[in-house]
Structures are given as structure tokens and as C-alpha cells.
């Protein structure tokens, strides 16, 4: 069953109708190449091209009797072709059709996913440029560290998304292979030259070597790549959730005028979309584990992978497509509060400038060990008393021996920390 949140374009790829259509494309391409090579009559290939069709319900009806989906499919198609139907599926084994057709489905799904990656990249770039010079506090271990800009945070997401787009394109190319090498991969009935021509007709490359199946390391790599993409989307959503916490409130997921956050508490504005992204990313990662389990099969093939792929391939591509759309909308519409970011920069009363104060003292001749001790003792006092760190530094005799008030004042300047933002953006986005 296709989940209700599926975009029609992606969901339709994994319907029975499209699956059997791809099987039919493989069968027709095979018949036409075989006719060109003199293996079957040309009249048979013409009849297969002209008359071949199927009905999903009829295939399922036959399958209930024969307990074999490909036999049910070929039986139904042959019913429409007539006597020339005996040349349908000539020289093929079931997985020649199934694996090759699956590559066509994955190619369609990958095109939609790559488009989604690029759309998200556009949104991330737009908002990164919007907040390029918007200062905020950077946090390590959840604790205030040094100033950054919100644009730089978005630039990190953009660059990661670009890497994921490249990874996905490569993984999709790894999956753009077919095989028509027979029951154990030895080309007993069709030679490699015919396999190559059939694959070329379908826009695929032939697998250089196969057993009865295309080797499942390709599928595992593809599913793992989808999992990495989903993990990056979770990373974005988790950060939005963290920045939306009441105590922080620097960023907030869009909340419409008609929206309600809680059945009990009318004041609530919860990050439900971001939480949904984080939750569903776990499913994509779990599916990658199942794909890794599919790599090891008995000898030249068993079917332990087949039932798994009927779940994980549709689910993972559908989910990632959904998550890409949701994340793009989350970033595009989120509320950003620069004033609150400035308030939080001052929350620790100047402690975020401790590293620069340390360096200034070292440059003035203090040993690093001494300077660290002087700065830290004043910093610890701020934690205890909430006094102003700059005022404490200006009163500290050890610090004053090395720095005058003006020099101390220059330490407490947010812009000193942001002087390389333009260079960072040039490296990420080029000239903008």
C-alpha cells in the first residue's frame, strides 16, 4: 500500500502497474533484439510489440494459482499476443526481467530524489545568503562557545546537501545496470552481445558479471546512500528543534494562524514537522541495515532478498522524497529571530570572549599557563556571581599588567570573530 503522504510521481513508480510495465519493456526489448539477431522470427517481435499488454488483476489471479509472479505475468501477456506469444520470454530466466526492470524503476525514483536534493540546495543557499552576517552564539557540548553567524550554519547544511547530491548521483549510476545472463549467469541461452544490446535499448549498462541476480552490494550501497541523505535531513531538523526550545528561541518552525499545538495547552507551538523528519529518518536508516543483510545470498542466488526489497526500496525512496520536500519547506518558511540571537550572545555576560582574552595576554608576553589561570578564575566568578566578565578582567591586577582598558575593550567585539565569513561563503558558494 502506498502511504498517504506520498507524492503521486514517486508513489506511481512503485505501483504494480508500473512494475509490470517495466517488465513488459524488458520483454519487448528482448524480443526485438532477438529478432534482429535471428533468434526468433521478426514477425514474432512485431506481434509482441503490437499486441503485448497486461491486466494487473488478471496477473494477481493467475499468481494465486501458480504461486509465481513472473509466470503469472508472462501467461497474461501471452493471452493477448496469440500464437506468437511462445517467443515471449525466450531464453530468459525470471530474474533477467525482474532485476533489469527494477533498475528502470530505481532510475525513475533517483531522478525525483536528485531533483528534491537540488530544490533543497536552492532553499539552503537562499537562506544562507539572507543570514550571512546575522551573529549568533556557537555552541559546543550544548554550551555557549564563540560567535558564528546563522548564515554559516546554513552554509554547512548547504555543503553537506551538495555532497549528498553527488553521492546519490553516483549510487544511482551504480544501480543503472541490467542482466540477461540466465539462470546462473553463464549466458547459456543468450550471449553477452545480446545482453548488451538489450540493455542499451533500455538505457542501462550490462552488469560485467552476475549470477542469477545483479549483486546486492549495489543495492546496499544505494540504500546506505539514501540513509546518509536522510541523516543529513534529520541533522537540520534536530538543529531547528534545538534552536526552537523556549529557553533558546532563536529559530522557530512555521506556525500558521489556524494551527493548534496541543489539545490541552493553547499556548503551545511545537516543532512537529522537524520531529516528524527526525522520526522517519530512522526508518530509512533501518532499511539500509536490511539492504546490507541482502548482500550475502546462497550460492548463485536465493530469494531471501526479494521480499525485503519489495518493502525497503519503495519505502526508502518514498520516505526520502517526502523528507526532502518537508525539509525544504521547513527551512524556507522557518521564523528566524536575530534579536533573540543577540540577546543570547550576551547571556553569559561576556564569557564567550575568554579565548580571545587568553590570546591577547599571550601576545603581550604572559605564559599560556599563567594567562589561562587568570582568565579562568575570572570566568568561574562569572558562573558563580553573574558579574560582568569584562568588568572583572579590567579589575584583575595580573591582566591589567599586560592589557590596558582599551586593549581589553577590543577583545569584547563580536565582529572580530566574524571577519572570515565572506571568505567562507566564497569557498562554499563562489562569487555571489
Report a brief summary of the structure:
The protein has 432 residues and is mainly alpha-helical.
Describe the structure.
- By secondary structure, this protein is mainly α.
- Among the domains are: 1-90, Fumarase C, Chain B, domain 1 (Orthogonal Bundle), CATH 1.10.275; 351-411, Ribonucleotide Reductase Protein R1, domain 1.
- The chain is 64% helix and 5% strand.
- It is built from 18 helices and six strands.
- The chain has a two-stranded antiparallel sheet with strand order 1-2. The protein has a two-stranded parallel sheet with strand order 3-4.
- The longest helix is centred in the N-terminal third of the chain and has 37 residues, at 94-130.
Ranges where pLDDT stays below 50 over 5 or more residues in a row are: 1-5
Gyration radius (Cα, Å) is: 30 Å
Task: Name the CATH homologous superfamily of one domain.
Answer: Fumarase/aspartase (N-terminal domain)
The major pleated sheet works out as: 2 strands, antiparallel
**CATH architecture level-2 label of one domain:** Orthogonal Bundle
Number of helices: 18
Q: How far do the termini sit from each other?
A: 45 Å
Tally of strands: 6
Helix/strand order, N-terminal first: HHHHHHEEHEHEHEHHEHHHHHHH
Instruction: Provide mean pLDDT, rounded.
Output: 95
Q: Mind telling me the CATH class of one domain? A: Mainly Alpha
Spatial strand sequence of the major β-sheet = 1-2
Structural class: mainly alpha
* Percentage of β-strand residues: under 5%
Helix % is 55-70%
CATH topology of one domain: Fumarase C, Chain B, domain 1
Q: What general form does the structure show?
A: elongated
Amino acid at each position: 500500500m502506498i502511504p498517504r503522504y506520498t507524492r503521486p510521481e514517486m508513489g506511481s513508480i512503485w505501483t504494480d502497474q508500473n512494475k509490470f510495465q517495466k517488465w513488459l519493456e524488458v520483454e519487448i526489448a528482448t524480443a526485438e533484439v532477438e529478432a534482429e539477431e535471428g533468434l526468433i522470427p521478426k514477425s514474432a517481435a512485431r506481434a509482441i510489440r503490437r499486441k503485448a499488454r497486461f491486466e494487473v488483476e488478471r496477473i494477481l489471479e493467475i499468481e494465486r494459482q501458480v504461486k509465481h509472479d513472473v509466470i503469472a505475468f508472462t501467461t497474461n501477456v501471452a493471452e493477448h499476443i496469440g500464437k506468437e506469444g511462445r517467443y515471449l520470454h525466450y531464453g530468459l530466466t525470471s530474474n533477467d526481467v525482474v532485476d533489469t526492470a527494477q533498475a528502470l524503476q530505481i532510475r525513475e525514483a533517483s531522478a525525483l530524489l536528485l531533483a528534491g536534493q537540488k530544490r533543497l540546495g536552492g532553499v539552503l543557499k537562499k537562506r544562507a545568503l539572507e543570514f550571512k552576517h546575522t551573529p549568533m552564539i556557537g555552541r559546543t557540548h550544548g554550551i555557549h562557545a564563540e560567535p558564528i553567524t546563522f548564515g554559516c550554519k546554513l552554509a554547512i547544511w548547504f555543503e553537506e546537501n551538495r555532497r549528498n547530491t553527488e553521492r546519490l548521483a553516483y549510487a544511482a549510476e551504480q544501480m543503472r545496470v541490467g542482466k540477461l545472463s540466465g539462470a546462473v549467469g553463464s549466458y547459456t541461452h543468450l550471449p553477452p552481445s545480446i545482453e548488451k544490446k538489450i540493455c542499451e535499448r533500455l538505457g542501462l549498462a550490462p552488469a560485467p558479471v552476475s549470477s542469477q541476480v545483479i549483486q546486492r552490494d549495489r543495492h546496499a550501497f544505494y540504500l546506505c546512500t539514501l540513509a546518509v541523505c536522510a541523516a543529513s535531513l534529520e541533522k537540520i531538523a534536530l538543529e531547528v528543534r534545538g534552536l526552537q526550545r523556549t529557553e533558546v528561541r532563536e529559530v522557530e518552525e512555521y506556525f500558521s494562524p489556524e494551527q493548534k499545538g496541543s489539545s490541552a495547552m493553547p499556548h503551545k507551538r511545537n516543532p512537529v514537522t522537524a520531529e516528524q523528519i527526525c522520526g522517519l529518518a530512522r526508518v530509512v536508516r533501518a532499511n539500509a541495515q536490511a539492504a546490507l543483510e541482502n548482500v550475502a545470498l546462497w550460492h548463485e542466488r536465493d530469494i531471501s532478498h526479494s521480499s525485503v526489497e519489495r518493502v525497503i526500496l519503495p519505502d526508502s525512496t518514498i520516505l526520502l522524497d517526502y523528507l526532502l520536500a518537508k525539509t525544504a519547506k521547513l527551512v524556507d518558511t522557518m521564523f528566524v529571530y536575530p534579536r533573540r540571537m543577540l540577546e543570547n550572545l550576551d547571556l553569559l555576560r561576556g564569557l564567550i570572549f575568554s579565548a580571545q582574552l587568553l590570546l591577547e595576554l599571550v601576545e603581550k608576553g604572559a605564559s599560556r599557563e599563567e594567562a589561562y589561570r587568570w582568565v579562568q578564575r575570572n570566568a568561574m566568578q562569572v558562573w558563580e556571581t553573574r558579574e560582568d566578565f569584562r568588568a572583572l578582567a579590567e579589575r584583575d591586577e595580573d591582566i591589567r599588567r599586560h592589557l590596558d582598558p582599551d586593549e581589553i575593550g577590543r577583545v569584547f567585539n563580536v565582529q572580530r570573530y566574524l571577519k572570515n565569513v565572506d571568505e567562507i561563503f566564497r569557498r562554499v558558494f563562489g562569487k555571489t
